[in-house]
């Protein structure tokens, strides 16, 4: 098993209501699971391949709850990544060189039956976890905007967090609102649905806990 480790920031928008039932082992709001995710790797490596500074995104779709499978997956990798970095990132998000079900990438990969050919293009992505804001732009493929949840009466910013001490994605995530649209192999569209923002620290064995 090739050792790898990444420290990254993520913004994920899915089709469920705020909070996302998946975080509580409940069934999806609308019966199906659909999501767009963006990642900024601040520090990372796969063996001796440096992954620091790279970006990636995934578009995911399942006809029912994730655990029932039959999912579709589209990976988008930063065009700035060289051949070795591309291969490394694709192995990580495919759940390779990872303990069984130890990371979200490994879990999701086990439920996907259709994986589309990866796309290597410029990824414009920015995320501020504490402020609950994010933006992903991949022209012709995906657009995503995240912002804080607001009180429907007063318009004031509302803050909520989810703490998962034994999770496989993050330990603590900020909840927000996302609006997204994708096209191509997996066409999705959400408006003011669940979004979460988190700092993630993962390796072959799962979350690296401080």
Task: Please supply descriptive tags for the structure shown above.
single chain; 210 residues; mainly beta; 14-stranded mixed β-sheet; two-stranded antiparallel ribbon; 8% helix; globular
Largest sheet: 14 strands, mixed
Helix-strand makeup class: mainly beta
CA gyration radius, whole angstroms: 16 Å
Average pLDDT, all residues: 96
In percent, how helical is the residue content?
Answer: under 10%
Number of strand elements: 16
- Measured between the Cα atoms of the first and last residue, the distance is 23 Å
Pattern of helices and strands? EEEEEHHEEEEEEEEEEE
Which overall shape is indicated by the principal axes computed on the Cα atoms?
globular
Task: Please tell me the total number of domains.
Answer: 1
State which percent range the strand residues make up: over 45%
Oligomer: single chain
Q: Poorly predicted ranges (pLDDT <50, ≥5 residues)?
A: none
Number of helices: 2
How would you characterize the overall build of this protein?
This protein is mainly β. It has one domain (4-207). Helix content is 8%, strand content 49%. It is built from two helices and 16 strands. The protein has helices spanning 83-93, 104-109; strands at residues 4-14, 33-46, 49-50, 55-62, 71-78, 112-115, 119-121, 124-128, 133-138, 142-147, 149-150, 157-158, 161-163, 172-182, 189-203, 206-207. The strands form two sheets. Strands 1, 2, 3, 4, 5, 6, 7, 8, 9, 10, 13, 14, 15 and 16 form a 14-stranded mixed sheet that branches. The chain has a two-stranded antiparallel sheet with strand order 11-12. It starts with a strand and ends with a strand. The relative contact order is 0.23.
